[in-house]
Amino acid sequence: MTNKSRHINPSFRASKPAELSMDQGIRGLREGDFDLIAQLISKAESKLLKDQAFIRELLMQAKPVKETRKIAVSGAPGVGKSSFIDSFGHFITTFLSKKVAVLPVDPSSQLSKGSILGDKTRMERLSISEKAFIKPMSSSLSLGGLAPASAVASMICERSDFDYIIFETVGVGQSEIEARNISDMFILLLQPGGGDELQGIKRGIMEMADLFIITKSDGSLLDNADATLRQIRQANSLLLKNAFGWKPSVIKHSSYNDEGNDSALEKISAYYEFMNLEGRLDRLRKEQESQLFKKQSNAMLLDYVLNNQKLSDALSSLSDRLNKGELEALGALENLQNILDDLV
Ligand SMILES: Nc1nc2c(ncn2[C@@H]2O[C@H](COP(=O)(O)OP(=O)(O)OP(=O)(O)O)[C@@H](O)[C@H]2O)c(=O)[nH]1
Ligand SMILES: [Mg+2]
After folding, report:
1. From atom 6 of ligand 1, which residue's Cα is the shortest distance away?
2. Quick one: DSSP state of residue 1?
3. Is 270 in the same domain as 305?
4. Cβ distance 141 to 153 under 8 Å?
5. What's the pLDDT at 141?
6. What ligand 1 atom has the least distance to the C-alpha of 78?
7. Closest residue (by CA) to atom 9 of ligand 1?
8. Are residues 79 and 220 in the same domain?
9. Dist CA 78 CA 112 (whole Å)
10. 101 has which bridge partners?
11. Residues of the chain whose pLDDT is less than 70?
């Protein structure tokens, strides 16, 4: 026996981490245990069916017990989203003792190339705060196609004790829609700029905003920020109130100087006050639930149909016959209709 191998215990086995029980999961969530929340989010990312079943069960058993504000922060790449979240997050965690979770929307998207929250240095203060949970990067998370990544992470965090869930989403299109569908409030950041104030942001995205924030309102950019503020106020005055009757405001902010956090909070609180009247927030959240159901059930049905052997055989035989000229498109579709009718 060599000197080295004498130290090796032949019966040693790396111990597997103990399985998490449902009770532990629910209790840890309630207690706001960050490690456990991260563990649950990883479980939801796992491709193992038993992990996914566990998360589904957990989400159904543990209902949200606390009123959590769910806010999307969006804007073009580099507009200052992460810096704003760090500055505002620092403000509410430090001075108001609030707890906040920061989640990326669509981290696996082509366009963001995983940059969202990848660079934690942009959230220097929040990333070391005990009151802030920042979701680490993930490739993709979809809970077996039941819900998009960000929605699942949000559902998990909503069942914990956070006062705020803030979604960071890059201002390029699809991820905004996804963010809008899971948040109560949509904040659009715009930066000081000369002339091209709308900064490539589509009108549809402007119309989704519940608050506009002009970032980087400091130093040599201040004059530009004031000009941009006026232009956005002008553009905003032409926008109609949204379906709930809300009209967004436009404010300035500087993350470098931590200025504008009080007015951001004031506007956010005013929005919630408004949305809590006449059950508006409930209505919005119910609409979002039915949207999620509609979208995911369509995807689920399509998936089911495409994986059905009988159907896929029928589809390929129909397209064969189409290619050989034995059938025309209409005839093939009628055939398909008959097969579908037989199926259900
Ligand atoms: N002058 C000034 N610059 C800022 C401010 N906030 C952010 N910046 C700068 O703007 C750049 C982008 O900031 P981020 O906070 O990373 O912007 P982002 O929108 O999260 O960027 P992506 O996630 O890459 O789309 C950085 O170089 C920041 O230093 C601010 O308040 N004032
Ligand atoms: Mg960022």
Report:
1. 80
2. -
3. no
4. yes
5. 45
6. 21
7. 80
8. yes
9. 11
10. 133, 165
11. 1-17, 106-121, 136-148, 171-173, 194-201
- Overall domain count for the chain: 2
Q: Do residues 175 and 114 make contact, with C-beta atoms less than 8 angstroms apart?
A: no
> Range of 144's domain?
63-278
The ligand 1 atom nearest the CA atom of 256: 31
In tens, the pLDDT along 81-105 reads 999 999 999 999 999 999 999 988 7
Asked whether residue 161 is assigned to any structural domain, the reply reads yes
What pLDDT digit, counting tens, does each position of 137-170 carry?
544 444 444 566 778 889 999 999 999 999 998 7
Same domain, 106 and 174: yes
DSSP state of 278: G
Ligand 1 interacting residues, C-beta cut-off 6 A: 75, 77-83, 115-116, 122, 170, 215-216, 218-219, 221, 254-256
User: Using an 8 Å Cβ cutoff, are 157 and 103 in contact?
Assistant: yes
Alpha helix positions (H), 65-169: 81-94, 149-158
- For the chain, the first-to-last Cα distance in angstroms comes to 69
**Together in a domain, 89 and 185:** yes
Site of tokens 């949207």: 291
DSSP 291-312: HHHHHHHHHHHHHHHHT-HHHH
Residue 325, Ramachandran bin (φ over 0: left; ψ between -120 and 50: alpha; else beta): left
Question: Among 82, 83, 123, 170, which is best to mutate for testing ligand 1, by the most ligand atoms less than 8 A from CB?
Answer: 83
Task: State the Cα torsion 158-92-181-233 to the nearest 10°.
Answer: 170
